[in-house]
Write a structure and sequence with these properties.
Helices cover 74% and strands 0% of the residues. The protein is built from 17 helices and no strands.
């Protein structure tokens, strides 16, 4: 789930601001740390001739994720427009600034400790369980747990305060869950540090150590689950909007492609295949939708030079039996005119422009174009030729002899 959330938020790396990128870094780091705890990844790392290297890599990934989470809190919930910065905001900012330096020092300290004071004569199945009672491992783990101890306290405090001031119910629920997960994380770190110190001072029964490690591991998995759910809840509205935009772009593709192929200079770039268009990542979907609606509108304006004057009447007659007659008439008009465009012979008596519609925004215009596209895709070439022929016949009939 943490990996899914990290993948879901990948666009934040490119299009988001600094604190959203920091949040993604937290999810990605924790996902990497969790994967390094799985048997498959551990077995793959074992091929590197460094005993317990997966533990060191996991602690590096966790430290990076913790610093990213702390940065996110300091740069998002630490914002204030008040002339006097609240004390809790000032403290969070100071901790975040210090955390960067402490993180570098911590990583630099963890590495020599790992290779010197930790007894790594034999590989360990579980680092904490197998090294319980060893002073070297106790020093190493206490240095590592210092960062999550501070971060969970700061994040839990800030997210608890932010939940009280949340503007929407979804945001409040998400922040409450995130705050709960951080307080759970504080309990987890405190329990692990206590276990390590007690085991170093007085030998503990291996069964007690194993049970405690297993219980805290289950506790940690539960808090990560709550983090994933809490982070996803506030974004459900945005996710739903993103899905609607993607679906609209997907539906408009055939109409946009045909018009852009008829008038190549209208779009910023020539249309590609459906797969290629949806593989493009340089433009956000909402921007692409806005461009496509403008492209379709510009191409429609060009179409009227090739459409016979009677074509709109013929298109309306062809759409009279349709359940959605107005967009169906426009669809027939576009389809028939594209056949005339193929001859590249402008009409001697061009059709009038399509009626201007009172669209209030891009979404309203896109909704109309989706209705047009539904009928457009159903119209066969033979049907469009009939509409064009009737329009040309009507034009001839009205011409003075």
């Amino acid at each position: 789930m943490m990996t899914v959330v990290a993948v879901w938020r990948v666009p934040a790396v490119r299009y988001g601001d600094a604190h959203r990128r920091a949040l993604w870094g937290g999810y990605a780091g924790f996902a990497a740390a969790l994967w390094l705890s799985t048997r498959g990844v551990m077995h793959a790392v074992e091929h590197i001739p460094v005993i317990d290297l997966n533990a060191l890599l996991k602690h590096f990934a966790s430290t990076s994720a913790i610093l990213a989470a702390l940065t996110y809190v300091a740069t998002s919930y630490g914002k204030t427009s008040a002339p006097v910065v609240p004390k809790h905001v000032a403290v969070s900012r100071w901790i975040a600034r210090v955390a960067y330096k402490a993180g570098v020092v911590g990583v630099l300290l963890l590495t020599p400790l790992f290779f010197t004071v930790v007894d790594r004569t034999t590989p360990s199945a579980d680092f904490v369980t197998d090294h319980a009672g060893e002073w070297g491992a106790a020093i190493y783990m206490n240095v590592f747990y210092f960062f999550p101890l501070v971060t969970t306290a700061v994040c839990g405090y800030q997210w608890t305060r932010a939940a009280r001031r949340a503007e929407t119910a979804l945001m409040r629920v998400g922040l409450v869950l995130m705050a709960i997960s951080m307080w759970m994380g504080l309990v987890y770190v405190a329990a692990r540090m206590t276990l390590i110190r007690v085991a170093a001072l007085a030998p503990l029964d291996p069964g007690i150590v194993q049970d405690t490690v297993t219980a805290t591991a289950i506790w940690m998995n539960a808090l990560f689950l709550i983090v994933a759910v809490g982070a996803s809840i506030p974004t459900t509205t945005a996710a739903a909007a993103h899905w609607r935009t993607w679906r609209t772009v997907h539906l408009l593709y055939p109409l946009w492609r045909d018009l852009m192929e008829a008038f190549p200079g209208t779009s910023l770039y020539p249309p590609g295949s459906r797969l290629r268009e949806f593989a493009r990542s340089h433009t956000p979907l909402d921007v692409r939708l806005d461009r496509w609606t403008q492209d379709i509108a510009d191409a429609s304006d060009e179409l009227h030079y090739f459409a016979p004057a009677e074509l709109l009447i013929a298109a309306e007659e062809a759409a009279t039996s349709h359940s959605d007659s107005q967009p169906a008439a426009e669809a027939h008009w576009i389809k028939a005119t594209l056949l005339a465009v193929a001859d590249r012979q402008p009409s001697r008596h061009p059709s009038a422009l399509l009626q201007t519609k009172p669209f209030t925004d891009t979404d309203a215009e896109a909704t109309w174009l989706v209705r047009v596209r539904r009928t457009y895709s159903e119209i066969t070439t033979a049907e469009a030729q009939c509409v064009l022929a009737r329009a040309e016949e009507g034009l001839v009939a009205h011409e003075p002899t």
